[in-house]
């Protein structure tokens, strides 16, 4: 694919542009004088013109084209807009304040949105309800159905969803690596960096102390996930933090795993109070117990997404670090298959 074109002889500005392009996951073709830009002008997906070369470029009479940006490191220069008009630019970007926008502009042209992936959030109605197991099982089932799937562990105190899948020793990026790298994330780079299991991309925490995920980091990951994956499954903490709020705002559906007993329903009702402020479509996945599914659903005033009977020997399987059994005869397999049929079929 053709690279964006930068036209500037300002070495400080060029250093900024190269750094910003790298943050967007691309490289630039560079012309230090307008004459050197001529072979690239028509084919570059985007052109950034330094204010230092704008007048010289305008003098060559370049053909009109879209996606031309004038970039300057001198905010408030009264001559900037004249130069913008002269080169036919669509916008003026003043650095450093416009760096984020320029990252997004570069990323949009080198990695256009190819998908509009669904976000599915899963949260426990109380501790130990099995939300992480369900989130992992849904993601694995989707991956086995050849849906490009990303599983995101968003609960810093959950113990690590990679551990649940026996992948804690697998090399690859974790949250701390992404938090340290601010800005937009390329979905191709994200997929390449993350550990995977059975074709499923997995984002979890490092062992040890796990800090809260900044909302900006979650936003970048979900942006990349929705551009490059069919489904993004997010395992959330019971009390929404800023990162969880970011995920809930994008969720096509949020599943609350409820144990069918009085304590489980009361705990889930408290969780729902926090969730309803940030998302609309909430459904209950009911773990079998003393109460009927319809009683649980009615008590919580949310639709029932299905029943989850206890699965024999599931705990011992997970403690061995094995992947949850998800065959069509298992309770987890039946629930995940039926739910994904309804979710993907309703959205596609």
TrEMBL record:
Residues 7-114 form the Rv3660c-like CheY-like N-terminal domain. It comes from the Bacteria. GO terms for molecular function: ATP binding; ATP hydrolysis activity. It holds the Pfam family CBP_BcsQ. One of its GO terms (cellular component) is cytoplasmic side of plasma membrane. InterPro entries: Cellulose_synthase_operon_BcsQ, P-loop_NTPase, ParA/MinD_ATPase, Rv3660c, Rv3660c_N. Signal peptide: none annotated. GO terms for biological process: negative regulation of cell division. Gene3D superfamilies: P-loop containing nucleotide triphosphate hydrolases (3.40.50.300). This is Septum formation initiator. It comes from Planobispora rosea. The lineage of its organism: Bacteria, Bacillati, Actinomycetota, Actinomycetes, Streptosporangiales.
């Amino acid at each position: 694919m053709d690279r964006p074109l930068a036209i500037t002889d300002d070495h400080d500005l060029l250093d900024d542009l190269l750094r910003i392009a790298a943050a967007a996951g691309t490289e630039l073709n560079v012309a230090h004088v307008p004459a050197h830009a001529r072979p690239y002008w028509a084919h570059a997906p985007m052109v950034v013109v330094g204010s230092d070369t704008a007048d010289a470029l305008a003098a060559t009479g370049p053909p009109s084209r879209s996606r031309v940006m004038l970039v300057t490191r001198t905010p408030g220069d009264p001559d900037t807009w004249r130069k913008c008009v002269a080169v036919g630019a669509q916008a003026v970007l003043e650095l450093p304040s416009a760096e984020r926008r320029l990252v997004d502009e570069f990323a949009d042209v080198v990695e256009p949105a190819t998908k509009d992936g669904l976000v599915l959030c899963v949260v426990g109605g109380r501790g130990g309800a099995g939300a992480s197991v369900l989130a992992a099982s849904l993601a694995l089932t989707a991956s086995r159905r050849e849906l490009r799937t990303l599983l995101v562990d968003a609960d810093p105190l959950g113990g690590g969803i990679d551990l649940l899948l026996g992948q804690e020793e697998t090399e690859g990026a974790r949250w701390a690596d992404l938090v340290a790298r601010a800005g937009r994330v390329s979905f191709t780079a994200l997929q390449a960096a993350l550990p995977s299991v059975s074709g499923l991309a997995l984002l979890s925490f490092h062992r040890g102390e796990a800090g809260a995920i900044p909302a900006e980091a979650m936003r970048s990951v979900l942006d990349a996930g929705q551009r490059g994956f069919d489904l993004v499954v997010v395992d959330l903490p019971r009390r929404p933090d800023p990162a969880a709020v970011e995920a809930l705002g994008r969720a096509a559906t949020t599943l609350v795993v409820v144990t069918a007993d009085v304590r489980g329903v009361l705990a889930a009702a408290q969780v729902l109070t926090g969730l309803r402020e940030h998302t609309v479509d909430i459904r209950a996945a009911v773990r079998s117990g003393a109460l009927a599914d319809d009683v649980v659903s009615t008590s919580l005033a949310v639709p029932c997404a299905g029943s989850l009977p206890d699965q024999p020997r599931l705990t011992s399987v997970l403690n061995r670090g094995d992947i949850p059994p998800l065959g069509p005869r298992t309770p987890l397999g039946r629930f995940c298959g039926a739910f994904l049929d309804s979710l993907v079929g309703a959205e596609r």
